[in-house]
Specification:
about 190 residues, mainly alpha, 6 helices
Length: about 190
């Protein structure tokens, strides 16, 4: 935003210098009609500059409003705890860190509990244990099905706190959601 204003100010200064050179040339003619024309020209230029300033003020207000909306959206996103990308061996990201935090809430799934943000062999093994616990194929990568289950558990367990609670995966209410009792879509007896 500062660059935008410095460019506009530079433009205004150059325009003023150009205008002043025009004024200097006009005053050399020493005629009253030239002076009157010069005044008229300067008034027109002042009106143009005032219109440009008004337009910039409108743009500045729009930018401030957009900036405010971005801040609000950022706060909403921070309050929502989700992993959005599929994760696999070798990746490094904040989402891998969140995955490791989630997995470390159950020492049977991720006994090492390293929260590094790097998806290494230990994380892969932990994901396989987690997939086994939620009755999915143990592939060791976080694909669509695992991702869906993780986000469901995060929404259920963390709510709007934006933080993974300790012991999330071993909480009794979450334990009931870890493995579906039926995959056929029918209700068990």
């Amino acid at each position: 935003m500062k660059k935008f204003f410095s460019v506009i100010i530079s433009f205004a200064v150059l325009f003023s210098i150009f205008s002043l050179s025009s004024v200097a040339k006009a005053t050399e003619t020493n005629s009253t009609s030239s002076a009157q024309e010069l005044i008229t020209t300067l008034q027109a230029q002042i009106a143009t500059l005032n219109a440009q300033i008004a337009e910039m003020n409108v743009q500045l207000q729009a930018l401030r409003q957009a900036q405010s909306q971005v801040r609000e959206t950022t706060q909403e996103v921070k309050g929502t705890l989700q992993i959005l990308k599929q994760l696999k061996l070798g990746m490094t990201s904040e989402e891998v860190k969140q995955l490791q935090e989630l997995l470390s809430t159950d020492p049977e799934i991720y006994p090492e509990g390293f929260i590094t943000g790097y998806f290494g062999r230990l994380t892969e093994k932990a994901v396989k244990r987690f997939q086994k616990r939620i009755c999915l194929e143990e592939v060791g990568a976080v694909g669509p099905k695992t991702l869906s289950k993780i986000n469901e558990l995060l929404t259920e367990g963390a709510g709007n706190s934006g933080k993974i609670p300790p012991g999330l995966l071993i909480a009794p209410g979450i334990q009931k959601k870890l493995c579906a009792t039926s995959t056929t879509g029918t209700i068990p007896d």
